[in-house]
Amino acid sequence: MDEAHLTQLGHATPAPASPDAAVLERVANPQADTLYLARFVVPEFTSLCPVTGQPDFAHLVIDYAPGDWLIESKSLKLYLGSFRNHGAFHEDCTVAIGRRIVSAAQPRWLRIGGYWFPRGGIPIDVFWQSGAPPEGLWLPDQGVAPYRGRG
Asked: Which residues pair with 122 in a beta bridge?
C-alpha cells in the first residue's frame, strides 16, 4: 500500500479488533538508496495470556533497514494496540510482529527484541531477525536492561 492509498493517516480510525483485522500501511522511502537503520520503541506493549486471559506486558524494540518502503507509524501503533485483547504467547507475539512488518514493508533487514515482564516470576525475552544484517549497517545496542525491574 503506498501513500496514495493510505486509509488511516489523517483520518479518525477505530482501534482494530485483532492483529489480523489491523491494516499495516507503508509509504515510499525518500532515502531508499541509503543504508540506514530506523527504530521503533514500544515500552508499553500489551497482550493477553492465551491460557489465563491475564495481561502480559513487554518493551519492544524494532530495528529495520528500510528498502523502498517505510512503515507508516500510525498504522503501526494501531496494529500493535490490536494485541491488547489478543491471546498469544510471548514468542508468538514477538515473531508475528516482526514477520508482519517484513511482509508489509519488505525491508532490507529487520530485528525485533521482545523484552517481556515476568509471568510466573520469569521474564521471557524473545529475539527474531529476518536474516543477517547488511554489511556496513550500524547496529546500536537495543538499550534494554537485563531484568531487574527493567531499568
From this structure: 119
Q: Which of 19, 29, 31, 148 is nearest to 81 (CA)?
A: 19
Share of the chain above pLDDT 70, in %: 89
pLDDT higher than 70, residue 6: no
| Bridge partners of residue 61, in order along the sequence | 41, 113
DSSP string, 72-92: -HHHHHHHHHGGGG-B--HHH
CA distance 85 to 74: 19
pLDDT tens, position by position, 42-63: 999 999 999 999 999 999 999 9
**CB within 8 Å of 47: residues ≥ 6 apart:** 55, 56, 58, 83, 84, 86, 87, 88, 93
- At residue 98, the pLDDT reads 98
Q: How many residues does the chain have?
A: 151
Active-site positions read 49, 56
Using alpha carbons, select from 111, 115, 105 the residue that is nearest to residue 144. Answer: 115
For the record, the C-alpha cell of 55 comes out as 495481561
